Structure formats: C-alpha cells, structure tokens
Amino acid sequence: SKTPVGFVGLGNMGSPMAKNLLRNGYPVIATDVFPESCKELQDIGAQVVDSPAEVAERADRILTMLPSIYFTFTGSLCDTRASADVRRLKTSIKEPGNALCFVLFRKVKKGTLLIDSSTIDPAVSREMAAAAEKMGAVFMDAPVSGGVGAASLAKLTFMVGGVEEEYNAAQELLTCMGANVVYCGQVGNGQAAKICNNMLLAIGMIGTAETMNLGIRLGLDPKLLAQILNMSSGRCWSSDVYNPVPGVMEGVPSANSYQGGFGTTLMAKDLGLAQNTATNTKTPIPLGSLAHQIFRVMCSRGYANKDFSSVFQFLREEEGQ
Ligand code: NAD
Prior knowledge:
6PGD_dom2, NAD binding, 6-stranded parallel beta sheet, single chain, HIBADH, oxidoreductase, N-(1-d-carboxylethyl)-l-norvaline Dehydrogenase, domain 2, Rossmann fold, 9 strands, NADP binding, binds nicotinamide-adenine-dinucleotide, 12% strand
C-alpha cells in the first residue's frame, strides 16, 4: 500500500490537489491554519492534524501550497506570510511570526522529500533547498499553472526544479494532480518559469479586459466579440478560457462575482516577484511593471480578495460606469 503524503495549505488550490492524491489512493495527512478548510478533506478521508510539525512527523513526502513563504534564514527560521485573513488570524493567536515552516523544518525527518508548489521567489526556493539539505531532506520547487479548474480536474502543469535524481519520486505524486510535469533543471528554475508565465498572464488579462471593454463601448455584444477574438489573432487564455466579462462564459470567476479563482493579491505578489528578478538581472519589463502597479492599486481599492480577472470591473469603475 502507498505511504502517506503530507499536505500543508488547503486553500483554493491545495484543497482540490489534495483530493486528487486521495483519489489516487494515497493516504493524506493534511493541515491548514483555517480549520474550516480542513473539514471538507477530512470528510473524504484525509487525516487532519493541527500543525505542519505533525505533518512532518508522520509523512516523509510533503507538499506545501501556501500563499508565500518568506524565509528569514537565521538558524533555520522561516516564516510564511499569508493573505490578509491569515495575518489577522496570526495576530489573534499572537504567534511570533507564522511558524509554519519553522516547525516543519524542525521536525522534518531525514530522507523527507519536500515539494513546494507555492509561487515564491526562486532565490527563496534555493535557500529552502540548502536548509533542507542540512537536515538530510530534499526540497524541490514545483509551482503550478492552471488555476482552480485545472487543479480539480488534475490538469495542472507543474514546473519542477531540483536534483534530477529525486525528480522521479516527485513526478509520481505530481502526475496524480497534473497533466503536464516538466523538469526545469536546478532548484528555483520551476519558480523562474512560473514567474515568467504569470507575468504574461497578467499582461494578457489586462489586455483582454481593456479590449473587451472597448468593444462593449463601441456597441459590440461581449459574447460575439469574445467569439471573434477566439477565432482570431487576439486569442489568449484570458479571452478563451477565463474571460473576465460577466456573462460571456460559465464556470469562471467572472460568472460568479469574481469569487474563488486566483486572488488579485496573489497576482500582485507574483508580479512583485517578477519585478524583483527583473531588477536583479537588469532586465527591462515595462509591461510587467505596469501590470504590477495596476494589480497593486486594485488591492487597495477593494479588489484584493477577488479573482484577478476583476480587472475588467476595475476598469469599468475607473471610467465611472
Ligand atoms: P489560498 O490563499 O486560497 O490558500 C492558501 C492556504 O494556505 C489557505 O487556506 C491558508 O489558510 C493556508 N495557510 C497560510 N499560511 C499557513 C500556515 N502557516 N500553515 C497552514 N496553512 C496556512 O491560495 P491559493 O489560491 O490556493 O494559492 C496558493 C499558491 O498557489 C500561491 O502561491 C499562488 O500564487 C499559487 N497559485 C495559485 C493559483 C490559483 O489559480 N489560485 C494558480 C497557480 C498558482
């Protein structure tokens, strides 16, 4: 029988991913700071524990799917800084910092495989890998592309960085949750690929939103315009699979008041990562930088917890409609 897999972070993405591990016959030992997030998974057979430390004690393969992981490397201290809600929770329990990985790393057993699917800075992944190595464990970055729908259908794309000898062990688990698993080279390279993808996604989404809005202002029916774009050279994922205009498609956040999906805060975070890496490598990213600013402004105007396709609504409000 299969040995248990640990899972930390049961949010929009983590929850459906962990479900797919269960479906594939892996016992799952899971945790999240929000007990509500664990309930659903527990009901379908996961073992829910109170802390990442307990996950680390009981599993020797652990996946993390968290908003972000800030790694202050004093000894082996690391700290996850989460969404606004988690921050509120943190202050309410008066934990000094959010001790997730700190505890996880303290308790991690020798030989443990840590797979982090959060989108974080490639440099942080490399630091995590160095810290894991000191503990006799292996850390790989395996950020994903695809969104909540793809996570539910096990159709994610995983971009994996880390020691090649460990790749097969990671791949065995990742194929239960994704349709494409791509080895990108050394640790951090998965993140590099992911950050590039999301920068293009952000630019594409803003472009789609402003294009759709212009068309509507010119009197076009949004469904018709989307149909035309999607059979023409303007087609992109944001126009075709994740259209930001309410009423154009079903089953996407724009059809549901921009709830669920990929939060604007998370997109702003990813663009911040893109900006950091671009600054460090002296790479010009004029549109990436502008996209970063647009999503950051949205965060301070009430869009933080809405799906990032709400940039359409933001543009409409900006023009006073
Ligand atoms: P989310 O905010 O919905 O989920 C994160 C979960 O982590 C929450 O349930 C939160 O309670 C939990 N958490 C935070 N700190 C914790 C801690 N210290 N201990 C235990 N649990 C903790 O975020 P998400 O949309 O699932 O995204 C997760 C990651 O995946 C992010 O890095 C994001 O950028 C990336 N990502 C998201 C999508 C998407 O479409 N949502 C797509 C690709 C990649």
